[in-house]
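Lecture 7 notes: from sequence to structure.
We start with the chain below.
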Amino acid sequence: MSIKEKYNLGFLGHTDTVQGGSDWIYNPLKLTEIDNKLYGLGVCDMKGGIAAILKAVSDTDWNKLNYGIKLFFTYDEEIGFEGIKEINRLNMEMPKNMIIGETTNNEIMNGSKGLLEFKMDFKGKSAHSSNPENGINAIEQCMEFLGELKKFHNNLKLETDNRFDIPYTTMNIGKVEGGKSINIVPNSCATYIDFRVINEEHRIRIFEMINNLQGKYKFEYKIVNDINPFISESKESKTTNFITEASFIQSKNRYILGTGPINAHEANEYITIESLDKLVKQYKQIIDELCL
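Predicted structure tokens for the same chain:
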């Protein structure tokens, strides 16, 4: 939805949450106020941000605005980002300035790393373990591949960007699975690998390395996620270590600003009333600066 035809500012929030666990003290599906804290499933991530967006916009005198406001509310952010992907498929024009209401403890974040996730499948040949030379060990192929990829990453991480709390591109071997029995040479193995990249150059070099190693180790791979890094202009750079829908937006200026404290996905998730009130004031100030 949008307010006025010419808009200079947009707000975005996702409406879905993770599942509530059994270790909650309070009813996760009911808003509970205790000692100036608001408890509830998703109140931090990110119903508090949506509430502040709606409050700030509702309190604005639209007739005084020279530029309008566009509001986006999405779904499926927690798993597949399908909501923001659907918006992108519509080729909808986005405002030049976008605020994403994810939890930041009232700090303005102006960037985040990119995300590359892969699944690699290695194929071998089964044989009895008493004569392993008759087979091709897919797990060994995977191990040798991972050893080379790790050496590559050790060099890549020497190139840093101090605008990120963890200033280098990270690599995580999240899962390795393969084999059927201790006495059978495994004919298949799969590994799942996660990179958090600091810039586009690193993203390209990771793809180049994986494609080069594919020729050597004859594996197949699937791209699970490929999300570009971004940093918007700001007097002071402060970036998130997690991925948000800001990474999918093509607006010139993208900022992440939401409630606190940051305890998303935790049992007894909460925000403070003070943080919520402060966020409404922050959003109103942004509206005044960009739309009046």
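Points to note: The first strand starts at residue 2 and ends at 3. The chain has a mean pLDDT of 94.
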